[in-house]
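Support request, priority: normal
Reporter: lab tech (M.K.)
Component: structure prediction queue

Hi team, I submitted a job for Sodium:proton exchanger from Gimesia maris yesterday, and the status page still shows it as pending. I've pasted the exact input below so you can check whether something in the sequence is tripping the parser. The sequence length should be 482 residues. Please let me know if I need to resubmit or if it's stuck on your end.
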Amino acid sequence: MGSWHIIFTLGIFLAAGLLSGTLGELFRLPKVTAYLLMGVILGPALLDLIPHKHLEELKPLTDLAMALVLFGLGNHFTLSRLKRLFRRVLPLSVGEILATFFIVFIGLLLVGESGSAAILLGAMAIATAPATTILVLKEMQSEGSISEYTGILVALNNLVSIVAFEIIFVAVYFFQGDSQTSSVFTQLGHLGLDIFGSIFIGVFGGLMISYGSSIIKGSRRMIMFIALIAIALGLCRTTGMPYMLTFLAMGFTVANSLTEEEVPKVEAELYPLTGFLCVLFFIIHGAELKPSQFIDAGLIGTSYIVFRLLGKYIGIFVPARMRKEEPEVSLWLGTTLFAQAGAAIALSGIAVSRDPVLGGHLQTIILGSVVFFEIVGPIMIRQSVLRAGEVPLINAIHHTAGDPISEFQSMIRRFLVSFGLLSEIDQPPDQILVEQLYRKNVKGIAQTATFNEVISFIEHSHDNTFPVLGPQEEVVGVIRYQ
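Reply from support: The job had stalled in the queue. We restarted it manually and it finished. Here are the results:
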């Protein structure tokens, strides 16, 4: 483990993010998964290159990344859109939440887990990782029913999981005789105040962003956005209120208080910073993952993973079939909700602070299962939207217009030309022949090729224009890839 300056660590993370993103494209992995795996390699689980204190010191940046992602998610929840979708999404959400809760709860009881731990794990199983899920969908630029439903389901899942966990935790202690009735009502009152307070901060911050957008122009708008988001995040962290609700509420408020033309501008201005911070978020998150914790979770941890997967899938599949939703929705929507991390980890941390014995047991299971869900979850999201046909062709295939060797040669040539060490034109223009201007031995696509064969050809070629050949190898057309 090194002991260098934190800026050096930041540079390592960004360089690692660049490399892992490129490798992710090459091996057809979501960038989120590639970032996480790179973090695992750099972290204590393998190479242990990063000073542990740097991971803690960079936590505010990862919190800000999550806040920006949640704000962006809330930006899509206009009232008109919610009214259009809510009637269709609500039955799916209820089915998925109930199925996940009861399948995990009852399943863990059957494998020998205690009642108090099983019911709390049932509540925690509802939560879905918002940053992971939303960023994979954005990377794929997917559009369609599954992509629309997923955003709303993720928001509802985390809201219900947080509230259910708090209520169940209080109820468990009450029925065990560890709390007085007055104490129960006090804790529920604190829960209500936290929820109301977090939403209030979000709504107020959203109104300030909308108002500021109308009177502040240019680059100062970006400063205003970040200032308000950072202040809101700081308030939530200081008071212990759930900032997830704050930034969903903030994004929702902005979406409904600005014009339809202005909302995308806000998101576009924040996008470069969001992308930068999210690279750090996932690499740091990966560095914190410890594959050994998956083993530590044991039978209960493995059972939790299996039952949660079943709950998510069955909870969507059954109501979707009953309501005669599109076949793609019933088959693939549930698998977009597998990822789990931040909310569940935070809830397990709350449990530890209240009851070190019970909380420690819950945390072991959650941390062990997160290793699985954060690696497999993004891959399943990508496959789901691909299988459902919601991904543009340009994002469904991996194509590069050049190879590393030719790009390196071009760079060296430009460098030598700029210093006058090499002529830009090897011979006078009036002596250049046509045969010197075109490439020879160019392969083409057969006129009878299937769609899959065309995709494979494009992925294995560095050209952007592809001749289509007839039976006699004659050119009958051209395909251009842009």
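The longest helix spans residues 181-215. The mean pLDDT is 86. Let us know if anything else looks off. Ticket resolved.
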